[in-house]
Design a protein that fits this description.
Low-confidence stretches: none
Oligomer: single chain
Shape: globular
Helix content: 25-40%
Order of helices and strands: HHEE
Radius of gyration: 16 Å
Structural class: alpha+beta
Strand content: 5-15%
Length: 86
């Protein structure tokens, strides 16, 4: 039975890496649209990548609780790192 409030992920496979990159680069433009502001597009990640990202988020939360609010997560060469705000 279909439930309209349940989030259902879908997998999209594109013809080329360049097409996928264009979709990911332009995904943030959806947030400014009233129709698609609740649509979220993310790159598929391996289990190891998800575990790494979770540990980075946990470390950032720990730093924020300790009073260090001058840092954020940034992707550098497609790897998440905690960096100071500039």
């Amino acid at each position: 039975m279909f439930c309209g409030t349940k989030v259902r992920p879908i997998k999209v496979i594109l013809d080329s890496y360049d097409s996928a990159l264009q979709v990911l680069v332009n995904a943030k433009k959806l947030k400014s649209s009233n129709t698609f502001k609740h649509v979220n597009i993310v790159q598929d990640r391996t289990k190891r990548q998800m575990e790494h990202y979770k540990s980075i988020r946990t470390e950032l939360a720990r730093r924020h609780e300790a009073g260090d609010n001058n840092c954020r997560i940034k992707f550098i060469n497609n790897v998440q790192r905690i960096v100071p705000l500039n």
